[in-house]
């Protein structure tokens, strides 16, 4: 096993033809990177492959393999990516060990294949004041993207912008409600004039709403629909014409597992997110002949601030906060995995694995499914109520 870390020994050095040696070397780098890409979602089970891909990239820089020879770009954890970037800069024009006298490999390695697909690196993200939107912004800022970030909370948005600038990002903050089309249009126009277009639009802004249908006021129901559904519709309506002019683009609409789980006490929220799914599916078909990709991100509970911003019944606000706090999935994990999977251009991005299983279960056994969900929801309400009543009990 120890020999696997000495990745240089995998590549033959004694072949007579330098061209043959070069070809074999590049083929093996591409194979390792391909394995890494295919296994990146289950990262814990693929540490060895990721390590091999990192070492292959390192040797590729040292030997000046031109980036045009690589069919895909290696991904590494942020510390590893930073080390690769410094190594790439340090090699420069100086002689490299075991060099094949190839074109210099100057460009730092990108963390996401999307960066290679959209080299101008322009993204517009709604709801980036905290949570998942901020996680998307952090990941893209670390890869050198120009960002337009929005939120309804000015204080949170300014804090996010400061955090992004601290890691080298260049965010442009816009404070407005995504349900307000005129304000949304003004922000998109300003960002487009500054950067010449938008490569990725992420419609992430949303609010939570919980409670039985007759416990939620019609005003709260309407607000949930306007923010979660109309906010996404506004974003798509503004992004599509820009991307058509560019002849390329990517729209990611953030829905939720609640769009298909449809558990009791979530009628307003589930209806709004199910609308996002239907809207995205329609737009995907409309843009099928264009070079514009539309995807749906449907995560389950993620550790964000959405629980604190939930409207509706008071009891359900507490339930929402508790469920979010108990989640094992961080916003950073979801953002990273989503950006990796977006490179495949899939319509549905379901995270984590449990959400995909429940989605398939509902499609396979719809009648049995809702009965199971009803029982599970009632059991969960009892558990959370008991936890609120007796917080000292484990």
Sheet bearing the most strands, described?
A: 7 strands, parallel
- Fraction of residues in helix: 40-55%
Straight-line distance between termini: 43 Å
Strand order across the biggest sheet?
3-2-1-4-6-7-9
Report the average pLDDT across residues: 78
The helix/strand class is alpha/beta
The CATH topology of the largest domain corresponds to Rossmann fold
Spans of at least 5 consecutive residues with low confidence: 1-17, 34-46, 67-78, 91-110
Count of domain modules: 2
Q: How many alpha or pi helices?
A: 15
Portion in strands: 5-15%
Order of helices and strands: HHHHHEHEHEHEEHEHHEEHHEHH
The best one-word shape is globular
Q: What is the number of strand segments? A: 9
Query: What does the radius of gyration come to?
Result: 23 Å
Architecture per CATH nomenclature, i.e. the level-2 architecture of the largest domain:
3-Layer(aba) Sandwich
């Amino acid at each position: 096993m120890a020999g696997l870390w000495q990745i240089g020994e995998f590549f033959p050095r004694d072949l007579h033809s330098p061209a043959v040696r070069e070809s074999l070397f590049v083929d093996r780098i591409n194979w390792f990177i391909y394995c890494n890409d295919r296994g990146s979602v289950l990262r814990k089970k693929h540490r060895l492959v990721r390590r091999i891909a990192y070492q292959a990239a390192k040797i590729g820089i040292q030997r000046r393999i031109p980036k045009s020879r690589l069919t895909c770009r290696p991904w590494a954890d942020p510390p590893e990516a930073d080390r690769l970037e410094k190594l790439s800069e340090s090699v420069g024009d100086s002689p490299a060990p075991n060099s094949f006298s190839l074109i210099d490999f100057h460009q730092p390695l990108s963390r996401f294949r999307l960066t290679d697909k959209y080299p101008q690196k322009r993204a517009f993200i709604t709801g980036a004041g905290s949570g998942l939107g901020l996680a998307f912004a952090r990941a893209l800022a670390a890869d050198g993207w120009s960002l337009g970030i929005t939120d309804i909370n000015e204080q949170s948005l300014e804090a996010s912008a400061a955090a992004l600038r601290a890691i080298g990002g260049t965010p442009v903050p816009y404070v407005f409600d995504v349900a307000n089309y005129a304000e949304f249009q003004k922000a998109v126009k300003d960002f487009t004039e500054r950067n010449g277009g938008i490569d990725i639009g992420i419609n992430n802004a949303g609010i939570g709403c919980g409670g039985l249908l007759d416990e939620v006021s019609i005003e709260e129901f309407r607000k949930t629909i306007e923010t979660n559904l109309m906010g996404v519709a506004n974003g798509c309506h503004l992004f599509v014409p820009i991307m058509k002019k560019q002849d390329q683009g990517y729209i990611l609409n953030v829905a939720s597992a609640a769009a298909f789980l449809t558990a009791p006490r979530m009628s307003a929220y589930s209806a709004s997110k199910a609308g996002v799914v239907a809207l995205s599916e329609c737009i995907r078909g409309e843009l099928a002949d264009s070079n514009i990709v539309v995807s749906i991100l449907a995560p389950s509970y993620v550790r964000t601030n959405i629980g604190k911003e939930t409207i509706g019944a008071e009891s359900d606000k507490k339930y929402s906060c508790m469920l979010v706090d108990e989640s094992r999935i961080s916003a950073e994990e979801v953002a990273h995995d989503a950006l990796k999977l977006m490179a495949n251009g899939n319509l549905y991005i379901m995270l984590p694995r449990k959400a995909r299983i429940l989605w398939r279960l509902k499609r396979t056994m719809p009648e049995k499914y809702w009965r199971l969900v009803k029982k599970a929801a009632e059991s969960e309400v009892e558990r959370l109520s008991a936890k609120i009543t007796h917080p000292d009990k484990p």
